[in-house]
DNA sequence: ACCTGAACACCGTTCAAGT
DNA sequence: ACCTGAACACCGTTCAAGT
């Protein structure tokens, strides 16, 4: 029984929520249809987002923040040892990537776009701070070869990213089988990275 | 000095070439604009492609055929030994993926779409026949652990796919540095896969 | 401050009609 | 067989105007 003036009130939040839902359902996002569904004129979103891209960027930024929280939570729940923490990171990343496929694509597309906002870039960096630190830790613990941490992390991350994109494009099934493949990949990488 | 009737003649081929060029330039593909550029009415493409998706699928199919040729050529040029051939495959795949980023995305999107044509699916399978055979060969030669070849190839392919997507999203630079990272990744994978 | 309604320049797709 | 031109139902974006 909230009272309603002719203005909507929390339109910004509803636009974001609606857009993400459409995205998750695999549909193309039309601002006009979004406005229609929320019950507002097609020009109303303009007050909150300069254009469609601005709305997508806001969605992407929020996505990076959630991804960061997911990764940190998974790593923390895995205990203190490097290898289990790496495994948890891998699983959490692939889980996010498959559960929010369209959003993840949006996140990276937005991050890289020439005119991308700084807030988006820093949100992306923050999401990967803890995993990068974990790789450095694994090097310090002698579980992974020494050297440029970022370069080593890149190959591992690429593998996860690739597995996720293969699931999302149907080459690989999700679920329990995927979990095994991720575990395979992480162990394979850790083994390959172990100092010899 | 080719004579021209009011009909264009080889419109189908010109549509495909024009579409790929637009795609390569990173522009959004509009059928109307494409028709305009070729100098034909906006409804003319309809004679050759049922809808926009059909044109994209044709492009994707051609892409898989070219990718297959690239992969086979690179592997053949690398000699007889498994590891150099795996390395050549990796480099050729990443090269294609970075040189034809938008096309590759189209290829996989098309391949997975529920209503995808069989010709598209088989073209995709054919492109990866030789690399899959190479993995089986590497297993036979004792360079890679025995077991489900496809499952092992998946991790390797995921890594390449991931590296390519990171280059395409700007996280990783192309060029000589990329070649090193690919070599790193392949060796790391081969090492991780080597029977112990 | 926040939203509306009309307008503009685009889309993809359809279909009768032309040659 | 191959293409045209008008039409339809959509877009995203802009802007004067309303409350």
Topology (SSEs and partners):
The structure is a homodimer.
Chain A: H1 11-24, H2 31-38, H3 52-77, H4 82-99, H5 101-112, H6 118-127, H7 129-140, H8 149-168, H9 176-193
Helix pairs in contact in A: 1-2, 1-3, 3-4, 3-5, 3-6, 4-7, 4-8, 4-9, 7-8, 8-9
The first copy, chain A, binds a DNA duplex (19 and 19 nucleotides) through helix 2.
Keyphrases for this structure?
disordered N terminus, 196 residues, mainly alpha, Tetracycline Repressor, domain 2, 0% strand, 9 helices, homodimer, DNA-binding, 2 domains
Structurally, the number of domains of chain A stands at: 2
Mean pLDDT of chain A: 88
Gap between N and C termini of chain A:
68 Å
What is the strand content of chain A? under 5%
The whole-angstrom Rg of chain A is 20 Å
Query: What's the quaternary structure here?
Result: homodimer
* Rough outline of chain A: elongated
Largest interface, chains and sizes: A-B, 29 and 29 residues
Would you identify the regions of chain A where 5 or more consecutive residues have pLDDT less than 50? 1-6
* CATH homologous superfamily identity of the largest domain in chain A: Tetracycline Repressor, domain 2
Do you know the CATH topology of the largest domain in chain A?
Tetracycline Repressor, domain 2
Q: Give a count of the beta strands of chain A, DSSP E runs of length 2 or more.
A: 0
Q: Would you list the SSEs of chain A in sequence order as H and E?
A: HHHHHHHHH
Largest β-sheet summary of chain A: none
Question: Helical residue percent of chain A?
Answer: over 70%
């Amino acid at each position: 029984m909230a009272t309603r003036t002719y203005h909507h009130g929390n339109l910004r939040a509803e636009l974001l929520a609606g857009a993400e839902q459409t995205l998750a359902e695999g549909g193309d996002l039309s601002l006009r249809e979004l406005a229609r569904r929320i019950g507002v004129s097609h020009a109303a979103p303009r007050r909150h987002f300069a254009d469609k891209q601005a709305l997508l960027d806001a969605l992407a930024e929020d996505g990076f923040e959630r991804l960061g929280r997911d990764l940190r939570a998974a790593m923390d729940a895995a205990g203190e040892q490097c290898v289990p923490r790496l495994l948890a990171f891998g699983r959490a990343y692939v889980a996010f990537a498959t559960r929010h496929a369209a959003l993840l694509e949006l996140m990276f597309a937005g991050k890289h776009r020439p005119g991308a906002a700084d807030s988006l870039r820093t949100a992306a960096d923050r999401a990967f701070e803890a995993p990068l630190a974990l790789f450095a830790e694994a090097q310090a613990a002698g579980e992974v070869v020494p050297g440029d941490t970022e370069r080593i992390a890149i190959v591992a991350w690429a593998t996860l990213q690739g597995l996720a994109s293969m699931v999302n494009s149907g080459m690989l099934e999700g679920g329990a089988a995927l979990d095994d493949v991720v575990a395979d990949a992480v162990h394979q990488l850790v083994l390959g990275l172990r100092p010899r």
